[in-house]
Amino acid sequence: MFNRAPDPGVDKATADEMPAMGFLDHLEELRRRIIYAIIAVAGGFFVCWGYAERIYEIMQRPIMDALRHNGLSEKLVYLNPTEPFNLYLKVGMMAGLFVASPIVLYQVWAFISPGLYRHEKRYVVPFMVSTVSLFLAGGYFGYKLVYPQALEFLIGYGKQFTPMITIGEYTDLFLTIIIGMGVIFEMPILVFFLALMGIVSAGWMWRNLRYSILVIFIIAAVLTPTTDILNMCIFAAPMVALYVLSIAIAWMVHPKQRKKRAEKKSE
Known about the structure:
The chain is an all-alpha fold. It is 74% helix and 0% strand. Helix 9 (187-196) packs parallel to helix 12 (229-253).
């Protein structure tokens, strides 16, 4: 990757191991990694296309449960003859992207790894495992807790009316909540790289804790499909916990702390 300042605690011999790449080389490498990622996603799409109906049955369970609990008809509707076909295309694409995500993430790592020192490249396995695991955890949390609670509130609040929920509207809401929670759970990964490069520090994050919590609750209020405080708190609670975890991660990987550990080992 691009040249960067020597890492504290790393000797000159280790720093010299970093390869130098020109701007055009970076563009060529980026193009190659994007092509590999697109091929992986396309392969995942064709694999998941045949299971799109089964996947959607799992996706619609929360709304079916909410409708049943409120004594309403367990049916979604569509307004356009092409909508079911387009829906299954979208489901197959999203599922294919998820299936191919380890390969896509590896391409991201392969692109940035030339800019890392040799001892930093050992983070590839933790990076892959933690990124996929955190996204899964966020999606599962949204699917099992946040989304059902939100639907129960919304359907129950308007049960005196006859709902006509389209498959397109429901799918968009589902993907917004599930993918949104998955992305939110990636906060420790983002902080890891920012702290590794010295952009943020644990001290700075701790000093701005109150403001960060305020921002977290604002984000939760925007993303939560309901207006009640309970669901907003359910949405915000894991974000606050992840922020605290990210402070510990920032402290561990920040260049100052790595320099101190390196000095202790050399004594």
